[in-house]
Amino acid sequence: MADNKEFDPLKQAFLDAFPNPDRVGCPDQKTLKAIGRKHLPLNHPAQIHVSGCSPCFKEVLEYQAQWQTNRRRTHILLAVAGLLSIAALAKWWETKIYNVPTQTVASHVALPSPQKRVIPEVATLVALNFHQIARQRGADAVRVEKAQHIPARLVTLNITLPIGSDDGQYQVEIRTRDNQVFKRASGSSRIENGNTVLTVPNLELSSIPAGHYLLFFHHADASWRHASILIDEPPSDLKGHQ
């Protein structure tokens, strides 16, 4: 019989009171284990037999002690496993939050490559004075006057128009002397100090060959007028970008 820390006289009496050396009517080992683990009801026939058979009662006590020991051991193992899991989780969390190596982070972060800064070209402001140009007689008439210079680059033209010009929208064309159109644009005019000033913004002339041209302009309800211009060679710093 399994060792007991406390002596139970009632159990001892059962162990000696009902001898059954031939084991007559004894249930099998599986049934006795089920009784020791309290898996069978008290009114089960095997339970009734054990209460009157000392050898079976002894085996039931041994199975019962073994089952209780195993159950206590299982509970202890489960508790230890739970504590270890909690400790491992806490350690992982501490490492993740507080001990991330700087070099590890750097090796996984892709730094953006430096971008080349593009500085947009600013239009050069060019003032032209056509104030004294007289009206031409006929659409094909060409006056010979001193040509006004315009650089071959991005420009904004501020043109003082001939006396008596209306304000409002104007069409502008740059033509060769044989009437070939190189550039078309539009702009708006306003009255400033008694003069009509036409502004033509952001006119790109870098693709036009240097030389003499005619700048034609006309109001919506008026005929074309023109003046001589000279487009200069582009600066050396712009030639390499064309």
CATH topology of the largest domain: Immunoglobulin-like
| Fraction in helix | 25-40%
Give unreliable regions as ranges: 137-142
Rg from alpha-carbon coordinates: 56 Å
Give the biggest beta sheet: 8 strands, mixed
Distinct helical segment count: 6
How many individual domains? 2
Shape: rod-shaped
Major β-sheet strand ordering:
1-3-6-5-4-7-8-2
Structure at a glance:
With 242 residues, the chain is of the alpha+beta class. It has helices at residues 9-17, 29-36, 45-50, 54-98, 102-108, 236-239; strands at residues 124-129, 148-151, 154-160, 168-175, 181-192, 195-204, 211-219, 225-232. The chain has 2 domains: 9-96, no CATH class; 124-239, Immunoglobulin-like (Sandwich), CATH 2.60.40.
What do you see in this structure?
With 242 residues, this protein is an alpha+beta fold. The protein folds into 2 domains: 9-96, no CATH class; 124-239, Immunoglobulin-like (Sandwich), CATH 2.60.40. Helices cover 33% and strands 26% of the residues. The chain is built from 6 helices and 8 strands. The protein has helices spanning 9-17, 29-36, 45-50, 54-98, 102-108, 236-239; strands at residues 124-129, 148-151, 154-160, 168-175, 181-192, 195-204, 211-219, 225-232. Strands 1-3-6-5-4-7-8-2 form an 8-stranded mixed β-sheet, with no helix packed on it. α1 crosses α4. The radius of gyration is 56 Å and the shape is rod-shaped. The relative contact order is 0.10.
